[in-house]
Amino acid sequence: MRVRKANLLVAIATSCLYSATSFAPPKIINGIATPPRIASKDKGNVYCPPLSAAGPPVISNWRYDTSKGIISGIVTNHPTIPDGDRITTSPVKNPNGLNENFVCQTMSGSKYKLANIAFGAKVPAVESKAKLAADNKAKAAEKKRLAEEKKAAAAAKKAAVAAKKAAVAAKKASVALPKKAAPAKAAPKAKSSPASASPAPQITPAALVKLAKSTFSLTGTTVGPNGKYLLAGKPTQSSGRAAKIWTAYLADPNSPDIPAGFADGDASAVQQLTIKLSPDFDRLRLENDNYNKVQSGLFSGRFVKKMDYIQNISSSNRALDGKVSALAIESGQYDLKALLAARKGAPLRGRALRDAAASAGQCIQAVHSSNLVWTDLKTENFVVVRNSDNFNKEVMDNKGSLGLPGVKGIDLESVIVKGGNPIDYSPEACPPEFAVAFMGGYGEDFILDYSYDIWSLGMMLYELSTGVPYFEKKSPSVVTKLLCDEAFAADVSAVPDAKLRDLIGNCLSLDPRKRPDITGFLLHPYFITTGFGPFSF
Q1: What's phi and psi for 416, nearest 5 deg?
Q2: Which run of H or E residues covers position 62?
Q3: Element housing 33 (H / E)
Q4: Percentage helix, strand, coil for the chain under 3-state DSSP, each rounded to 5
Q5: What is the pLDDT of residue 390?
Q6: DSSP-assigned states of every residue in 143-161
Q7: Integer distance in angstroms from the first to the last C-alpha of the chain?
Q8: Backbone dihedral angles phi then psi of residue 307, each to the nearest 5 degrees
Q9: What distance in Å separates the CA atoms of residue 195 and residue 198, rounded to the nearest whole number?
Q10: Which of 162, 203, 347, 417 has its CA 20 to 30 A from that of 463?
Q11: pLDDT tens-digit profile of 440-498?
C-alpha cells in the first residue's frame, strides 16, 4: 500500500513537534488500544500511527468467508486505517493455512498478521487438516472395500465356472445312462429324454450381488424411496459448488441390491444414470425447473433427458438421508473437454465439428426461446451420449468423418431469466461487458441478455476448432483482466475453416449488439452450405 511522500513528511514533522503527545500511552477504547491523535488547529485531531509500529497490520477477532475467500476483523498497526476500525481484505492466497499468529497474503499482495479468531468462527487450517485426515481415512476405506469386492468377484466367478462344469457333467451323465441300459433291452419309454436332464445350476443371489458390486463399482449406498437408486464409484464435485455428481443405476425391484436388467448377469442390459446430489435445495430446484422449461418449450434442444427429481431424498447413508435433493439425468459417456484432451490437442474436424456446433446451437435455441440465458456454456457442459466403445474411434477420427451425433447439453444450474442477474460465472465463458462489471464491483447487478451466451458459444467453438481454449493456461483472474483491457480484441485467425472463422468472429464481437442472435447463428453459411441448416438437424 502506497503513502504519499508529502503526507509522510507531515506526519514525521508533526510527531517531532509534539513528541510528548506522539509517545504518550495509547488510549483504551472498547477494550482496544488506539494510538494517540495529534491536535491540529485546522482539522481537529489527525491520526498518527505510533513510530514504534513494525511488521504487517494485525487483524483480531477475525473470520474467514469461505464463499468469497476474504477475511474481516478489527485492524491495528495499519499505515492508513485507524486502529480499532473494521477491515475486509481482498481474497487471500492459500486459505488452508490460515490460523492464529499466522501472516497471510492476499491476491493483491498485502500482508496481514492474524491474531485471535472471533468466537465461534472456524480456523481454516484446523478444518483443512481435519478434512485431509477424513479424506485419507475415506480413501483407505474405499481401497479396502475395492479389495474385498475384487476378492468377492473372483469367488463369484469361480462359483460360476464350477456351476458351468457341473452342468456339463450332469448333461454327459444323462446322455450316458441309456447306453448302459441297452443290454437289458429296456423298454423305449425308459429312455432318457431331454426333459429328464438335470437343469444347469443358477448363480446364487449372494454371488450375483457380489458380481454386481464388482462390475458396476457399487458403493452399497442407496438413495430414493425404497432404495430406488444405487450409487456407484466416486463422486465428482460440481464446478465451484456444493453439489456432487454420482454414477447411479436404477435398482432391480425384485433384487434391490443389483441394477435393473442384471438378473441374469448380463451387464449390457443395464442402463447407467447420473445423479446430482446437492444440499442447496433452492439451487437444485431451480435447475429442475430449467430442465422442465427448455425441454417443454417450442424448441426442446439437445439436452440430456431428465429422469427424476426428488427433494430431501431418503438414503441408506445417514450423511445424505434427508439432507440433500437429487436430480437424475441421462448419462453421457464423456464430455467434449475430455475428448479434446484424449486427442492431445488435435481439434475436431469435418462432420464431427459441425455436429458439435449444431448441438450447441440447438441447446441455445431451446434456452433462448424459453426467455432464459444459460451463462455457463462451455465444452465441459456437453457430453456424448453413445456406446462407450466408440470413444477410441472418435479420438482417432482426425477427419471427423464419423461425426458426433450424440452430443447433448447438461448442467442448467446457472440458467437465469433474461433481464435477471447472474448467480455465478465462468471467466472463460463470460463476455467483456460482464468482466468490466465484475471488476467494477457491480457484477451481481449485471443485466443478462442473449448476447452473453453467443459470446460463450464463440469461445467454445474456437476451442473445438483449434484444440485449445482461447485463454489457454491463464488463471481466472488474468482472463478477467484481459477481457477488461480496452485494447483487447478476439483474434480468430487460428481457425482453419474460413466460414467457421467468420461465424466465430461474429460471435466474439466486442459490441454485444453486433453479435448474431441464435437464428442468425444457425442460418450462417457454415451450416447452410453443408446441409446443416436449422430445419435439417
Answers
A1: -130, 150
A2: strand 58-65
A3: strand 32-34
A4: 40, 20, 40
A5: 64
A6: HHHHHHHHHHHHHHHHHHH
A7: 58
A8: -95, -40
A9: 8
A10: 417
A11: 999 899 999 999 999 999 999 999 999 999 999 899 999 999 999 999 999 999 999 99
